[in-house]
User: Fold this.
Amino acid sequence: MRRPLVSLALPAFALLALALPLATPALAEDAPVTIVIKDHRFEPAEVKVPANKRVTLLVDNQDVTSEEFESAELKVEKIVGGRKQMKVAIGPLKPGRYPFFGEFHEATAQGAVLAE
Assistant:
């Protein structure tokens, strides 16, 4: 007596469907993009983010003094206290370069977000 093919395929498919989410790694876009303020400079000075997606920046001020994270193009103006962190949601951004700066130390605190 032959077993129907459907009865064998269904359990195998169900196992695959259950295992697939466990094998899929988390997407890098979900993690915040970190920008460190140190010695009144942004490190890295340029960060790449995916275009057309909402992204979270984590601005980590390692200096003892406050700094401002400002960008007219990104529509953000936030003060990050000394030895503090702050999250900033940006985007979705069209492909391009979006400069930012620290108003308290504008001569050295310069950077850009590159949306690709």
